[in-house]
Structure prediction request, 194 residues.
Amino acid sequence: MEHSTFEEQNPKPGPKQAGKSWTAELWDWVKTIVVAFVIMMLVNLFVFNLSMVKGQSMQPTLAEHDRLFVNKMVYHFGEPTRSDVIVLRDPSENATKKDYLVKRIVGLPGDTIEVRDHHLYVNGVQQTENYTDIEVQDPDFGPIMLEPDHFFVMGDNRHEGKSKDSRMFGSITSSEIVGRAEFIFWPFSEMKKL
Prediction:
């Protein structure tokens, strides 16, 4: 009767087998990193984005260099609403595809928008804007009536000339909206929901 030893059933790996093991493990790591990167890019493209505020047009709500969590899915399930803080592609003629703005929606489709005597009026009603600390310092504007799928956006900083917004480039459409800014996540001391 023949007897096999444990050693014969499980021979020690030779140099070639050890090399295969090392390269197989490296290949597994590479695949994991590539899959994680692809998932991260897809999530960034379709679900959310992290954005940094540049400029002072949204003060006092947002300060320059605040970092925002931007929900890119929210408007697939609902419509933009008044007072939403949004990130949009800059619709200005001289803007590039990489230029984005952070603004607040103040007018919805069908609304009549007017700036008169340093106040914002929507449908003839003066708005109470708790998110800004100053009256509109720019010249009077409007009235204009928004077409279907058109939104009027303004910065919260109402000092003269501080906000590049719909008074300059006109109303925007939903196709220009990247997503809704949900909260400031950095710096931690300023973390808050918008």
In short: The mean pLDDT is 84. The chain has two domains: 6-46, 50-193. Residues 15-46 form the longest helix (32 residues).
